[in-house]
Amino acid sequence: MEKLKMIFRVLKKLFGRKEQSENADAVTSLPPIHFSCITLVSTTPSNSQIGFNDFFVVEYKGKKYWTLFQCPCGCGEIISLSLQDEHDNTWQVVKSKHNRPTLHPSVWQNQGCCSHFILTDGRIYWCGNTGSPPDLYDEVE
């Protein structure tokens, strides 16, 4: 009986490790880098100047005003987000050690493609509800 228990422990150990490493590979697999760098500009680029993998931050006299980029779904829509605290809806751009953008909070297009994604270290993480319009609530009176 002891030999059977020992064989069972060895098999469990061998198969348990394999299963864990397969799961670890799935967890550590990252999406490709979509935005490889942040381009700082002092004036807002025209829509025709913004390529599919371009990520612009408009900064003037040390203050960040806007970020502009094409929607990563491929629809071609230019997304322009305010980085100004004075605005009701505002985002923050953080530069990684590789000069790639991280954007907070997520982006959810409320019309057109209705893409919903998180941008971290230049990588796009699609949210499960992408393609669905966000719930827009009327003000409660």
Automatic annotation (TrEMBL):
InterPro entries: DUF6527. It comes from the Bacteria. Pfam families: BubE. This is Uncharacterized protein. It comes from Lacibacter luteus. The lineage of its organism: Bacteria, Pseudomonadati, Bacteroidota, Chitinophagia, Chitinophagales.
